[in-house]
Specification:
By secondary structure, the chain is mainly alpha-helical. It has one domain. 72% of the residues lie in helices and 1% in strands. A two-stranded antiparallel ribbon has the order 1-2. A hairpin with a 6-residue loop joins strand 1 and strand 2 (188-189).
């Protein structure tokens, strides 16, 4: 208790509190700009920590992480352009809500869910760090494959109304995920001798193309058929959730935060996978799954609670085991080493105030999201008052900058435009962009984990079912995939009988 009080006093000192505020603001701004991910925001902030003491420096970087994870939802909702990979699932219902004139409410849902998920994972990190770190060590190839399969099983929930088209979209995403150098035996696959395809297809340009740029094409096509208006002719201001509405959706908040925390703990999983799995679970367990994808509040709460909960979860293996829980926490682990801290079991013994300081830093950053979010969303929404021809041009320009900034490669820009046409025709013929992106993101993880486990098992498949954690996740995946199909069949049968 004494260390806890010391940590609170330490974080509440004017300078350290200012660092938390600046970190949250910077992270949220970077997150709202397409192409600037949470990890890039931390990289940009890292040089400013070189002259700081280790603990306040880490607390500031964690605040940047929290702000970035939340900030991605702003452009996802207002522009249908995920600012960060973690915000992909937020576009599914966030943008449709904005199109209905509920942009402020959608932003309020995102900020509230992000704050809740962050606070939930902070308490989980403080209370269960050693236990959760032990659980993370049990994840091997079989468990990673089962986890990827669980994510892919969500396609029947997040796809188009035609579930067969959703499955076909996911299969196409899986096929594109095989392009590049085989990570196990080093053989070139489907690259056709092109150097820019050797490392595979980066899903960030694909995501920008299929969602944002494709939406521009669609809106340009419809300009002659409707009034030239945007989603923000009226003033966009963040509308916070009322307490009674939060109580009504408490299951979604809690369940999504638990999913996000657990997946955050699993090394290399990250917030994007947490958000997608949480979204699929929310759609599957909903009494009205048909509303998902049309502007459903739970469709925003689930991914935003999960991706921010993954922030606190990812810090557990990073600190306790020295294993990054996500790509962003890998950057933070590098910051640990630069600042003279050695992540591992002895870290908390050598730095007893560190864990508690990060805990309070997460709490304060989560609360600051409400204040910072209100200001940033108001300012960011100003660009949406432009006539759509100008707004569409701006979205394309942001997409080009976002795609190019990843590797400073114009090939990524070309890929963005190629997949923008694919996304446009997917939308036109009622295929699922969401399922396609899901297949592309999880394809590599699923394939590599599957092959590694078979190699470890000398060609035997029993390793997937003989390991308890893997077996449980596989059963969950099968149930998640089948249950929407059964519900759809029952609904069709009832309609026929009626």
């Amino acid at each position: 208790m004494e260390i806890l009080i010391q940590s609170l006093i330490y974080v509440l000192s004017p300078m350290n509190l200012l660092l938390v505020v600046l970190g949250t603001v910077f992270g949220m701004v970077c997150g709202a700009l397409p192409g600037l991910s949470s990890s890039m925001a931390i990289i940009l902030a890292l040089p400013f920590t070189y002259t700081m003491e280790p603990v306040p420096a880490i607390v500031m970087l964690v605040a940047v992480y929290v702000g970035g994870a939340c900030g991605g939802s702003i452009s996802a909702i207002l522009l249908k352009t995920p600012g960060t990979p973690e915000a992909v699932a937020t576009t599914f219902d966030g943008y449709p809500m904005a199109m209905k004139g509920q942009a402020g409410l959608a932003l309020g849902l995102a900020v509230t869910a992000s704050s809740f998920g962050t606070i939930f994972s902070a308490f989980a990190m403080l209370v269960c760090a050693p236990l959760l770190a032990t659980l993370a060590l049990k994840f091997q190839s079989a468990e990673y494959f089962a986890l990827a399969l669980l994510g892919l099983s969500c396609i029947t929930s997040i796809g188009s109304k035609n579930q067969m088209k959703a499955v076909l979209s996911a299969v196409l995403g899986l096929m594109f995920a095989t392009i590049g150098i085989d990570s196990i035996n080093g053989i070139e696959r489907f690259a056709f001798g092109q150097p820019f395809l050797m490392n595979g297809i980066n899903y960030i340009p694909v995501m920008i193309g299929t969602f944002a740029i494709a939406e521009v094409y669609k809106n340009i096509e419809e300009l002659g058929q409707r009034d030239n208006s945007t989603i923000t002719e009226t003033k966009v201001s963040l509308v916070l959730m009322k307490m009674r509405d939060m109580v009504k959706m408490w299951k979604t908040f809690i369940k999504s935060s638990i999913i996000g925390t657990i997946i955050g703990i699993i090394p290399a999983a990250g917030g994007s996978i947490a958000a997608l799995i949480s979204y699929g679970e929310a759609a599957k367990s909903s009494k009205t799954p048909e509303k998902f994808g049309t502007g459903c509040p739970e469709g925003i709460i689930a991914p935003e609670s999960a991706n921010n909960a993954a922030v606190g979860g990812s810090m557990v293996p990073t600190m306790i085991l020295g294993i990054p829980g996500s790509p962003t926490s890998a950057v933070i682990m590098a910051a640990f080493m630069i600042l003279g801290l050695r992540p591992g079991p002895l870290l908390l013994r050598e730095q007893p105030i560190l864990l508690n300081s990060i805990f309070f830093g997460l709490i304060f950053a989560a609360l600051l999201l409400f204040v910072v979010g209100r200001f940033i969303t108001r300012e960011f929404a100003r660009i949406l008052k432009l006539p759509y021809p100008m707004l569409g041009t701006l979205i394309i320009a942001l997409g080009v900058v976002g795609a190019y900034s990843l590797k400073n490669s114009y090939y990524d820009v070309i890929m963005m435009f190629i997949f923008s046409f694919i996304g446009y025709f997917f939308d036109k013929f009622k295929y699922s962009n969401s399922a396609f992106i899901l297949g592309l993101i999880l394809g590599e993880i699923a394939e590599n984990s599957l092959r590694k486990q078979i190699i470890i098992g000398n060609g035997s498949w029993m390793g997937f079912v003989s390991r308890p954690i893997s077996l449980v996740i596989l059963v969950m995946a099968i149930f998640t995939f089948i249950s929407p199909l059964i519900k759809a069949r029952k609904k069709t049968a009832n309609q026929v009988s009626a």
